[in-house]
Each structure stands twice: as C-alpha cells, then as structure tokens.
C-alpha cells in the first residue's frame, strides 16, 4: 500500500520487473480494450509491443532501446531551438544511425507479428460473431517504404524546426478493417466489441504457441459489456487454460465456474 511496487518470485526479488514476463504470462480482457479499435494509434502500438514482449521477453530490450534513443534525439532537437551548429548536427547523425538500427528492427518485429496475428484474429472473430465477416489488419508505416534512415534524413529540417522526431516507429499505426472499411470509423458497437475480443484472443493464441503453454486468461468485468449472444459465444470459445473472471453482477450459468469468490465490504468469501 505504500512505497514502490516490488516483484518477487518464491520470495526472491527479481533484478528487473520485465523478468517476471519469463515466469508468468497473462492475457487480460478489459472494457478499455474497446480503445484498441476506436482510439488513436497509441493504443494499437502498445498492443503490438506488449504482444512482442509476451511472445519473447527479449523484445522488451528492443522496445526500451527505441524509447531511449528517441528520448536522446528529442532532447537534442529541443536544445537546438530550431538551429543546428556543426557539433549538434554531428551528434544528431549519431542518434539517427542508432534510431535507424533499432527502429528498423522493431518495425520488422511488428510486421512479422501482424502477419502471424491476422489469421488468428480472423478465426477468433468468426467464432465470436458466428459469421465470416471479412476482418483485416495492416501494418505499413510510410517510413518502411524507403527505410528509416532515409525517412529521418528527409524529415530532418522539419524535426529541427519543431524540436521533435516526426517519423519513426513511435508514430506507427495498425489499421483495422471490417468489410474492407476502417473499423475505427465504420464498425458498429457490436463489431467493435467483437473485434477487440478477437484481437486479445488472437494474441493469446499466438503467445500460447510461442511459449508452449497458454497464458492465464483474465476477464476483467468484460461480460457486463457484451450482449447475451456475444457473452455466450465468448464463454463457449474460451481457450483451454486457467481463467479468472471479475464481475460486478452475477455470472451467467454458461460460465461454469469451478470456484466463486465474493468480495464485499473488503472481505473475501467463497460461495458454497
């Protein structure tokens, strides 16, 4: 309740928080997952990078490297106040080279992840919706066409003027489509919920294959957000794994829970 969070395994503190990813994996569904469909690119970038780390904890270092280099490059651009002297230009060359290296690697990893994820998301959507509505994901940021080094060189004057990096993996997006139309602007409320669930189920399936065992599945107050048909479809298509469900209202009979814990007034009791 006080002080910084600590990560312990068998009462032993881990050197780094990210080391927990190699010990326990979890797939979490939450009402905020709707943002994956209708919000801006940031939520979808985070989804991709979280999935990369879940598939292989080593990818956390790659994501961290990109963020670190971006911070250094942006700090230099901000300090330049719109004008580069010779020393600043040479330093910017160094950061451009580093960003091109780690940024290209992250772009390649994201591209491979999306390619593996698309058929899984399509299958999950079909099972949840009960139809074969065309669903697609596209990861094709403009900088990947000519390469990040070329994109940074082309954007340098604009970056210096604005004092920030305007191109690179930190601005990428994944376009989600339903019936060949952008889901962000054309999906119905039901389609949005179904697609968000399908994304999480697809990632769960991908991580299961990569890790050799399924992650723990957490449904955090999701069932109350679904209509009866989608709720039944989700429960009927649960992966074979440990599932934890939180809910503020009684669960449907189709949940078939092995154990139910009720939290009331700060106390936890097991229902008979």
Please give a structural write-up.
With 272 residues, the protein is an alpha/beta fold. Helix content is 51%, strand content 13%. The chain is built from 9 helices and 10 strands. The chain has helices spanning 35-38, 41-55, 59-80, 86-129, 143-146, 148-162, 183-186, 189-211, 228-236, and strands at residues 8-9, 12-13, 26-29, 135-138, 175-178, 181-182, 216-220, 243-246, 261-264, 267-270. The strands form 4 sheets. The chain has a 3-stranded parallel β-sheet, covered by helices on one side. A hairpin with a 2-residue loop joins strand 1 and strand 2 (12-13). Helix 3 packs across helix 4 and helix 4 packs across helix 6 (148-162). The longest helix has 44 residues, at 86-129. It is globular and about 75 Å long. The model has no long low-confidence stretch (mean pLDDT 92).
Task: Map the helices and strands.
Elements: E1 8-9, E2 12-13, E3 26-29, H1 35-38, H2 41-55, H3 59-80, H4 86-129, E4 135-138, H5 143-146, H6 148-162, E5 175-178, E6 181-182, H7 183-186, H8 189-211, E7 216-220, H9 228-236, E8 243-246, E9 261-264, E10 267-270
Parallel strand pairs: 3-7, 7-8
Antiparallel strand pairs: 1-2, 4-5, 5-6, 9-10
């Amino acid at each position: 309740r006080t002080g910084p969070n600590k990560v312990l395994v068998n009462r032993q503190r881990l050197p780094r928080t990210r080391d927990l990813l190699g010990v326990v994996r979890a797939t979490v569904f939450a009402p905020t997952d709707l943002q994956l469909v209708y919000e801006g690119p940031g939520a979808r970038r985070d989804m991709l990078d979280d999935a990369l780390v879940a598939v292989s904890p080593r990818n956390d270092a790659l994501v961290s490297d990109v963020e670190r280099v971006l911070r250094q490059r942006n700090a230099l651009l901000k300090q330049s106040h719109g004008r580069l002297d010779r020393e600043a230009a040479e330093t910017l060359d160094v950061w451009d080279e580093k960003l091109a290296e780690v940024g290209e690697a992250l772009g390649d990893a994201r591209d491979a992840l999306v390619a593996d994820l698309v058929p899984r998301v399509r299958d999950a959507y079909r099972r949840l919706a009960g139809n074969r509505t065309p669903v697609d994901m596209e990861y094709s940021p403009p900088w990947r066409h000519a390469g990040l080094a070329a994109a940074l060189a082309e954007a340098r004057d604009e970056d210096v003027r604005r004092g920030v990096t305007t191109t690179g993996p930190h601005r990428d997006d994944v376009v989600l489509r339903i019936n060949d139309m952008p889901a962000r602007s054309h999906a119905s409320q039901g389609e949005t919920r179904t697609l968000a669930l399908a994304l999480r189920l697809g990632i769960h399936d991908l991580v299961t294959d990569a890790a050799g065992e399924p992650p723990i599945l957490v449904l955090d107050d999701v069932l109350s957000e679904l209509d009866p048909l989608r709720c039944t479809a989700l429960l009927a298509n649960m992966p074979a794994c440990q599932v934890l469900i939180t809910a503020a209202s009684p669960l449907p009979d189709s949940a078939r829970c092995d154990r139910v814990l009720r939290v009331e007034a700060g106390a936890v009791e097991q229902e008979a």
